């Protein structure tokens, strides 16, 4: 087929005396007629989360994870959508909100702390559509009303372990593990009533959750009453922290290795046996456990060994 690209309007109008050819059509969406500068969250489970899409020249474009999306920019997207308190956003790069099949034609949106919403920000576009394997998703937040500066451990198997979260501006959020030291762990655990330090997990051991990343590069001296009193980078100063680097803690107990105790019984002479190992209370497997073992535990706790039952 030989088309001159002048007067032909369909293939049948072209000269057929040519070799067979193949073509690839540009995957450019039909205009959505949206106003340039508008943003939306698509395919989320709630209105407050979803794949980020920006309207450029009447077409919705997703934001590709090949380019950086800062926390400030994500928060300004939420501002434009009406989430102005506390103006935090969680950023997700794992494709949990699916993919816009139209190739993105917006490279990057860059906002500063002086911008109120995306209309005020710098937007980099491309005339050539770009391939994009993963697209950004974000979650916006409403005020939750937690107590400012409180910390908690989430998603652990016992109360003294889990993902470390702190309340800031009424929202629970995670802490980036960049620069998180044993001293920081000591202060966090002390704030929760554990005075013996902690094991620190740096790679989202207790999952990354779905909250914003509120602090990074926390630096405590050790005398502080809580993490909020330590030096740190706040939300707007965190340029990039992957959600695979959320801090987790296992706070040490006030015990000595080899100590035993009984918990959960109806009186002080019965209960589940726990033993201290490396400053942490833990359970003992019941495999092979018998009355002889029970007598040893009862004797260690100061009880008569005669009649002890497993």
Short structural summary:
With 310 residues, this protein is mainly beta.
Write up this protein:
Helix content is 10%, strand content 27%. It is mainly beta. The protein is elongated and about 100 Å long. β15 (260-264) and β16 form a beta hairpin. The strands form 4 sheets. Strands 8, 9, 10, 11, 12, 13 and 14 form a 7-stranded mixed β-sheet that branches.
Residues in helix, %: under 10%
Estimate what percentage of residues fall within beta strands. Answer: 25-35%
Order of helices and strands: EEEHEEEEEEEHEEEEEEEH
Distance between the termini: 89 Å
Q: How many DSSP E strands?
A: 17
Radius of gyration: 29 Å
The whole-number mean of residue pLDDT values reads 87
Please state the overall shape, judged from the principal axes of the Cα atoms. Answer: elongated
**Uncertain stretches of 5 or more adjacent residues:** 23-28
Structural class: mainly beta
Tell me the major beta sheet.
Answer: 7 strands, mixed
Number of helical elements: 3
Described by its quaternary structure, the protein is single chain
Supply database-style keywords.
17 strands, 5-stranded antiparallel sheet, mainly beta, 310 residues, elongated
List the helices and strands and how they pair.
Elements: E1 39-42, E2 49-56, E3 59-62, H1 71-80, E4 89-92, E5 106-110, E6 122-125, E7 137-140, E8 151-155, E9 161-168, E10 171-175, H2 182-191, E11 198-201, E12 213-219, E13 231-233, E14 248-251, E15 260-264, E16 271-277, E17 280-283, H3 291-300
Parallel strand pairs: 10-12
Antiparallel strand pairs: 1-2, 2-3, 2-7, 4-7, 5-6, 8-9, 9-10, 9-14, 11-14, 12-13, 15-16, 16-17
